[in-house]
Amino acid sequence: MNNKHEPFIIHRYKSIGYAFKGMLLLLKTESSIQVQFFLAIILTLAGFFFEISSLEWIIQIFTIILVMSVEALNTGLEKICDFVHEDFEERIGFIKDIAAGAVAISSLGALIIILILYTPKLIHIL
Ligand SMILES: Nc1ncnc2c1ncn2[C@@H]1O[C@H](COP(=O)(O)OP(=O)(O)OP(=O)(O)O)[C@@H](O)[C@H]1O
User: Fold this and answer.
1) pTM for this one?
2) Which of 4, 26, 46, 121 is the most buried (most CB within 10 A)?
């Protein structure tokens, strides 16, 4: 529970704690995040294997962050939807669909970026 009267530093410290708890909850409970985390590990290993440049690392890390952040926000939105309206409701379906659309946009973008990064390297070793 947040206490708005506690010192700023304590308040910030607790907020960071909640945020880390949120990351662990996502990893423990959400299969989509687990799959993305697994793919992030594969990409990290690929980065070391192909000795990608600093700029390529930055692009790859940003790509992973983007997809996983959008997925996390989508998960939160789904939970709110289920909390406010458990039964079938067209407007809830619409909200969930457009939130899933955001995940699709970031995932397709990520796929294109990863293909641009690794296709030449894969062709080179084949
Ligand atoms: N309460 C509802 N009313 C109307 N349509 C819904 C409702 N709940 C889900 N839907 C429809 O089903 C789709 C999938 O919803 P769901 O909450 O199962 O998301 P998901 O991405 O499959 O979830 P998960 O995180 O389990 O993978 C939504 O995009 C929406 O079209």
Assistant:
1) 0.90
2) 26
